[in-house]
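Backbone geometry:

***
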Amino acid sequence: MYKWNTEKAIKHSKLIADFITWGHSKGYYLILDWAKRGTVNQIEIYGYDRPTLHKICQATDFTLFIIENDTLIWIDDGEHEIWGEIADYWESLDKDNKSGRDWQDTNHMQTS
């Protein structure tokens, strides 16, 4: 179980703001998907109350869109090269940042 840490939650929030701004500057529309997620959500998703940094506001999931030929395109393939660039950037922002790419949760960004 994770223990609430207000300073880390605030740090994560500030990093997310910088991250989204960077993404938009690159033409990547990083839409907030899951940020705060409680016990009920965990049970709905996994069938049990799985530990997560989402509960203490230190993890955020995103939906990614790009514009190609004036068309908004949803990048839902976690293997898409843009997700690799996004994960690299997220991890470069702070030593405590990790993306979920190592456990097949590509759109997950956390600060531990």
Summary: Residues 32 and 68 are 21 Å apart (CA to CA).
